[in-house]
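Trying the structure run again after the queue cleared.
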Amino acid sequence: MTEITTATMQQLAERYLAVWNEADPSARRKLIDEVWAEDGRYTDPLAAVAGRDAIDALIGAAQAQFPGLEFTLGPVDAHHDIARFTWNLGPAGAEPIVIGFDVLTAGPDGRIASVAGFLDRVPGA
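Done. Tokens:
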């Protein structure tokens, strides 16, 4: 068991977005294996996947859809094993194209057990 603190949850949220920003497939997979529980779940309005392979495929597809864009992290509010935070997706240093809000739950080992994502602003919406 890993002691889960507010600082731990902040770091986990940072590492979570680092996974989304990692463009090299093998480096991304290494991060996924470090950060996500083996049976981790990710759900948002456009996808619902479980397991590291499916999470990796989802992130790869999102990167292909939005090439050259990067995620930035907003404030992280955490307690116990839960964190909520906003994020932006857009060109570096420019107005974000997509804005979202995620709720991340850590497992007892300190890895991501689940993420529930919400899309607040998307292109064409």
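Helices lie at 6-21, 25-35, 52-65. Worth checking whether this holds up in the mutant runs.
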